[in-house]
Structure formats: structure tokens, C-alpha cells
Amino acid sequence: MINPFIPVVNSYLPEPQASLLNGILFGVRSSMPGSFYNALIATGVLHIIALSGMNITILTNLTARMTLWLGRKASSIITMCLIVSFVLFVGASPTIVRAAMMGSLSLIAVYFGRQNWGLLSLILSGILMLLRNFSLIKDLSFQLSFLSTLGIILANKRVERQRKNGLFKQLIFFLKTNLLITLSAQIFTLPVILYRFHRISLISPLTNIMIEWVIQPVMVLGFITAIIGWVWWPLGILPA
């Protein structure tokens, strides 16, 4: 299926900005300049142009908030339908399927009024994917996605027990949280990266912390721009 939103993004932005946004939103990197691609590798932020769980997380959060007025169950069903549509639209890569399954399991828990267990959702998603296609265990995207998510979940469990009150303490807590989550994700993926690429980026933790806060707004505005611009091109200029 041809993605109709990619030409819309290309019509609004020059290169390499257009390729970067298409990579962030849809995992497309074919038209990205080689020098820019290598720069992403050198700084350890190549993952931002690969479809990841963040896309599903943003989609889930936005849809859930917009449909919450319909009730918990209706909101969960609508959000799950959109997740499935997104996977079918962008392609069922291992990272997206893993994130979609985790998101769906979380929504099922919400639907039935149960507590969501991120670690259990991750393990169940991994088992189901491997039962369907055991060769995924050798897939780099699956390995990095699973391990980084595991690191993030475990870091979040530690963070949840350390919440602070007060503006200054909250700011320090926010910075420490970002650092902890970033380092945790990278520590868990480090063995695979060393084995596959035989190198690591020493500045990767710093660069990831610097860009983390801006990725979500870029995704949200990017999705809005692509959708609105596809419907009526002049209107898409506003968020772009």
C-alpha cells in the first residue's frame, strides 16, 4: 500500500527535514541523504527514524483522550481499531507489531477495568510474536525494540517509587528520570549493538536526552500536518 502522506510531507519541507519527518512518522528513509543518515548513526539517534513504540504510544494517548467522553469501553475499542489501522497502513514491522500488541493488551486491561502490567504485556507480546514467527529472535529490530522497552519499563518502575513534590524538585526529578530511562534503554540494548555493529556512540546518552523532549511534539504536529495537508493542502501549512 502506497503511503499518501509522504508526498504531502515532501511538499512542505526541504531535505533532509522531509526525510527526517517521514522517518519519524512512517519509518521511511529511502530518500534520506547519506551524509545525514551517517550523522544519525554517529550520534546514536538512528532509532528516531525507525517506527517504534512511541508512534503507537502517541496514537493511543491522543485517541484515548479525544474519545474518553464516550466512556472507557468505547474509547478502548476505538483506540484499538486505530492501532490496527496504523499497523496495516505503515506495515507490520517487528517493532510496530510489538508496540501494537502491548498497546492493545493495555487497552484490553482498561476495557475490563484491570490494572495494566507493562512487563507482562511485553513478555506476552514477545512470546506471541515468536510463536507466530520464531525467526524474529534473530531480527535486529525485534531485539532492539524488545530490549529497549524492557529497559524503559524497569526504569519506570524505579521512577514511580521516587516521585517528588515542589516545582524545583519536580524539575530535577524530570531531568533525572529522562537520564535514567535513556541510560536504561541503552544499557539493555548495548550487548546487541556491540555484537551487530562493533561500535557504540559515546555521546548517545547526551544526544538522546537532548532530543527526547522534542520528539513527541514533532510527531504530533507531523501527523496533524500530514493528515490535514492530505485533505486540503493549504490548510496543512499552518502546523507545518
UniProtKB/TrEMBL annotation:
It is found in: Cell membrane. NCBIfam families: ComEC_N-term. Residues 24-236 form the ComEC/Rec2-related protein domain. Keywords: Cell membrane, Membrane, Transmembrane, Transmembrane helix. This is ComEC/Rec2-related protein domain-containing protein. One of its GO terms (cellular component) is plasma membrane. It is a multi-pass membrane protein.
